[in-house]
Amino acid sequence: MKKLMIAASCALAMFATGAQADERNLRIAFDVPYEPFEYKDENGELTGFEVDLAAAMCEEMKADCEFVIQAWDGMIPGLLARKFDLIMSSMSITEERAERVLFSEPYYNTPGGWFGPDSFNADVTDMGAMKGKTVGVQRGTTMDTFVTEEMSGVVTIKRYTTADDMVLDLEGQRLDVVFVDYPVGEQTVLTKKGFKEVGEPVKLGEGVGVAMRKRDKDVAEEVNAALRKLKEDGTYDAIMKKYFAYDVKV
Amino acid sequence: MPPDFIAAWLNKNDIFTAMTIMEYWDGMVTTVQLVFLCLIIGLVFAVPLAILRTVKNPFVSGPVWLYTYLFRGTPLLIQLYIIYYGVAQIPGIQETFWWEIFREPFYPALLAFTLNTCAYTTEIIRGAIISTPHGEIEAAKAYGMNWFMRMRRIVLPSAARRAVQAYSNEVIFMLHSSAIASVVTIVDLTGAARNIYSRFYAPFDAFIFVALCYMVLTFILVFAFRKLENHLLRHQRPVGS
Fold it and tell me: By CA distance, what is A141's nearest residue in B?
């Protein structure tokens, strides 16, 4: 009987190690806090849209995942140095980054939002109505590129380094309207009295993707398959509804 | 073949096109306007303030001392933030005619730069005034000149000669300090460089080019001040040079 137990536990152990070899170990990096994408709740638990999505993705891939906190500056270097295997921290897909890392298909794209004072009543898509208005954007963002390309010569464009400075000038009436990443505007402008959304959100750029090392092509395939599955079976929509009142799906 | 090489390089790069060069040019015009105006206004106010600063009565010299102490004791960036963002927060300012001036970033920046450079220039001129040799003043008194005439004929001209070298430094510092105007949305030289950097993600190209622009401006200033010094200080040159 004892022998049988030992044999059984040995077999179990072998089976377990065998299973572990099949299962992927993935370390996923987040830069916190970046609400509502990744942040720590009151109990110190890591949570947010991308964290939930990452957990669902790991389940779909049957991978054993570990979540790592990494500051933004060291994201790509940390990935390349194998400190972790995936970045799911709102990293927009750009040509410059794609030269160094491998991106999955985009898994979300927040629109740019138009925000202004309650008294603002022009149609932001009507160039005639917008003529002579002063628009604030954050320098170098997709919103900056959009306004520069579509509205140069019609509106006066003012470029800011931080969203805070821009919102101060909107409050001080130096700007008629700002065009900013929707979640940022939601938290900085809409929380103030006397301000509202003044136009339809505009989707810009390719969106945000999972970043991986260039050689991990097999991981990328699995990640893409898992993300596609989550988008189709409704899991993605359920997670999205938990954090957003608007559509970020791509 | 260097010329072919340069032509090929110019054709290849997409950063230094006619459009971006124009952006740099507009930025240079803004920088020069801003610095020139603040230096002129600052100098005009600095001369009487420096004279007041040397007066013995503390009720006259005290406020000037406090002003130069405040503006030399705090960073220009902080002064600019206070004037640009602070003024917009004053309740009701948007309804007054002042808002016409303070709405645009140019005038708040001009005000901050002027107050700052005026404080430094006041101290430079004051230093030159109090180092006037006593003998010159006594000689002027012996001739029966009153205070005003002494100031105009003896003290200020010789003070100007002593101040010009220190003042040329202040002018160059002011040119370089004006780079912070770009934080309040003014597209000066630095603002143009930052816009172009963020568009092409090419920090070396964008910033080295703008550094060269500042260097050219600095060389022009150094050259002009050397001419001025040669003119003002020609009595100090050896005979026949």
Answer: B198
